């Protein structure tokens, strides 16, 4: 952990990285430059990153401003694997706007506050989960581990200071395991950790989206722990250097308006958005759609009190990993700019703030069971190869029937998604653990979840995926 902390501190205090030779403040009277730091593979930031960039919403907004003011705006996008290097560049005043997860946001606020030119504030949310289901711990296929407690004494790969690492720390705490001594944390970038898991160097990997879903989709990992088990909200958000926002308020406003553009587009066209993000990130579209499809991540830019409160509850994490300056969370959060962006569009910010519903949910009529979708907690979704739309399923058994019928018709299933019966987490149907309960089948995203259910419901039994497909009626 000492070496991990040293590497983290090196990352967040660096003053330059390769390819970043221009100062973010280098703007002339008729040209304004804005440098945006984002993480293309972190799906829950796409409305302020990959999708936003792919659709050109920010450039269009700034171009419209420039037509009336005579100012030219230049947008530079910088892609990173985690939030730490974005924070390092903001400390160095080389990135103006950045997006990252909740734990990295804490570090960002803490590390930038000593310098007024670098000091940041949290101005919007990108995606969130009210239960914490966005981050997960996976193990190799065939691992004997059944719960987070089984990792005691094991090596776990995580990016120290990331949302994935924060999830691991909270999960270990809840299991009564000291995060500092109970496991050996290997401080690794996500892709390095994925290799470490596959080679056996690490017995588990704790990461933010989309890495757990990617490894499960590829058959390289099995889900051990769903962050929803902690029942603690997690989110990703946008930070801006206050000095930059003060000098160029029109840029921040354009960015937030563009984020709203991207959020609307994603919620209205989730499949098209997933394909655009997949192209921009290199991730499989089936994995992207797991998270930004209906019932996945809640893409809602409002700074909800529950999320701010959760961020305050995460502050002890700073002290647990090193000497970070305390952060005044209420002073770090500034809802003024996003509230203004809503008002400028004639939208009711307070109504959106109070809403806890996922803006994107499945609806319509199940074509196989021939019934309407009435309960989002049961609704699933089938994506058949060669089709530009997906097929809704009213409940898990209807989804299993649809998969079975697709196979009988010679159609290839790209992906099938179903909500976990315990926590509601959207997951792959073929990677779920299925339980037969009388005449119905219930999916669980972890073996532990299925075992909790069967222990509480005598007469039920765990069945494999093929058995569930064959038995669905």
TrEMBL record:
Gene3D superfamilies, per the entry: Periplasmic binding protein-like II (3.40.190.10)
Record flagged with keyword Signal: yes
PROSITE patterns (UniProt xref): PROKAR_LIPOPROTEIN
Signal peptide limits: 1-18
SsuA/THI5-like domain sequence ranges: 132-272
Any Pfam family the entry gives: NMT1
Keyword list, A-Z: Signal
Superkingdom, taxonomy of origin: Bacteria
Protein name: Taurine-binding periplasmic protein
Protein source organism: Mycolicibacterium chubuense (Mycobacterium chubuense)
Gene name in the database record: tauA_1
């Amino acid at each position: 952990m000492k070496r991990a902390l040293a590497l983290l501190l090196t990352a967040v205090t660096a003053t330059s990285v390769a390819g970043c030779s221009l100062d973010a403040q280098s703007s002339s009277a008729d040209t304004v430059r804005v440098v945006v730091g984002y993480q293309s593979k972190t799906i829950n930031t796409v409305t302020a990153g990959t999708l936003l960039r792919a659709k050109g919403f920010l450039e269009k907004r700034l171009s419209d401003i420039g037509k009336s003011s005579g100012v030219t705006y230049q947008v530079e996008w910088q892609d990173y694997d985690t939030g730490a290097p974005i924070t390092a560049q903001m400390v160095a005043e080389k990135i103006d706007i950045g997006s990252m997860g909740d734990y990295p946001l804490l570090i960002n606020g803490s590390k930038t506050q000593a310098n007024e030119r670098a000091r940041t504030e949290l101005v919007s949310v990108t995606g969130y989960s009210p239960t914490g289901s966005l981050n997960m711990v996976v193990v190799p296929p065939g691992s004997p581990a059944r719960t987070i407690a089984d990792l005691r004494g094991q090596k776990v790969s995580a990016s120290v200071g990331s949302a994935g690492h924060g999830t691991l720390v909270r999960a270990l705490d809840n299991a009564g395991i000291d995060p500092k001594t109970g496991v050996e944390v290997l401080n690794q970038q996500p892709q390095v950790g994925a290799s470490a898991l596959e080679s056996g160097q690490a017995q588990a990997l704790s990461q933010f989206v989309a890495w757990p879903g990617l490894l499960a989709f590829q058959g390289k990992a099995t889900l051990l722990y769903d962050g929803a088990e902690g029942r603690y909200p997690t989110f990703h958000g946008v930070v801006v250097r206050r000095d930059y926002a003060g000098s160029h308020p029109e840029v921040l406003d354009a960015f937030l308006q563009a984020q709203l553009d991207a959020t609307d587009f994603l919620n209205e066209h989730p499949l098209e958005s997933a394909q655009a993000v997949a192209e921009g990130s290199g991730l499989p579209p089936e994995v992207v759609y797991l998270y930004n499809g209906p019932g996945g991540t809640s893409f809602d830019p409002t700074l909800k009190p529950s999320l701010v409160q959760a961020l305050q509850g995460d502050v002890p994490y700073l002290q647990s990993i090193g000497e970070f300056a305390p952060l005044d969370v209420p002073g770090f959060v500034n809802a003024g700019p996003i509230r203004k962006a809503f008002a400028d569009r004639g939208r009711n910010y307070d109504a959106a703030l109070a809403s806890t519903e996922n803006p994107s949910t499945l609806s319509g009529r199940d074509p196989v069971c021939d019934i309407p979708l009435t309960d989002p907690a049961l609704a699933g979704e089938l994506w058949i190869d060669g089709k530009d739309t997906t097929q809704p399923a009213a409940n898990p058994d209807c989804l299993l029937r649809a998969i079975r019928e697709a196979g009988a018709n010679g159609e290839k299933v790209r992906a099938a998604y179903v909500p976990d019966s315990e926590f509601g987490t959207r997951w792959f149907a073929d990677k779920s653990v299925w339980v037969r309960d009388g005449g119905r089948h219930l999916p669980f995203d972890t073996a532990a979840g299925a075992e909790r259910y069967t222990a509480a419901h005598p007469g039920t039994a765990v069945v494999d995926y093929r058995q569930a497909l064959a038995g669905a009626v």
